[in-house]
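Before the break, one more example. Copy the sequence into your notebook; we will annotate it together after we see the structure.
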Amino acid sequence: MSFYADSHRALQDEFGRRALADLLEAAIIHPALAPDEQAFIESQDMFFLSTVDECGRPTVSYKGGAPGFVRAPDPNTILFPCYDGNGMYYSLGNIEAAAHVGLLFIDFAVPHRLRIQGEASLVRDPDVLTAFPGAELVVRVTPTEIFVNCGRYIHKRIAAERSPYVPDAQGHAPVPAWKQIDFVQPVLDPAERDRVAASGGPITPEDYGQRVAAGRP
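Here is what the structure looks like once it is written out:
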């Protein structure tokens, strides 16, 4: 089956790009990760994840961690952890409902980008979770289409400050400021409320706004 649908073909024909699109499909789109692609993925500290819900509505989210938090143990597998979030489980719920995902890895220093489409599932196996300290769940992706995009429009950024909220080697991370907001306290579990208390106690929404403005979310 072609990588392109009728809607893609119509636009390719409209702008005279069908031959180019056919060349790229044959030359660069592939189903398994090459060794250099595995190494690139495992060197990154962030990527963008797109998912769709059971009605086909798309969303995209940012995923970050320490370099190596995404793993590609073999040409047909990508694994990444899902750390503590806002409790919506929006991307993960989408994966449970419709397994289709897209992953976009960007190196802003080179620049370089790798696009991956595939089928995802949630992993709850304790043996897998222990390999990702701080993870609530792990997502396994089986790639179906992999390709490199031209990096000419990527804005080059060299300096980057890593988030202090990335779990450490033991899975520990600071309490995010939004969990300290006073009206959030009733819906937190007791362990989280204890962590808030140990971090200085609840704060007001105004305090939270000041922290965000100061770059301390």
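The radius of gyration is 20 Å. Helices lie at 6-14, 18-28, 35-43, 90-97, 126-129, 190-198, 205-213. Try to locate both features in your own notes.
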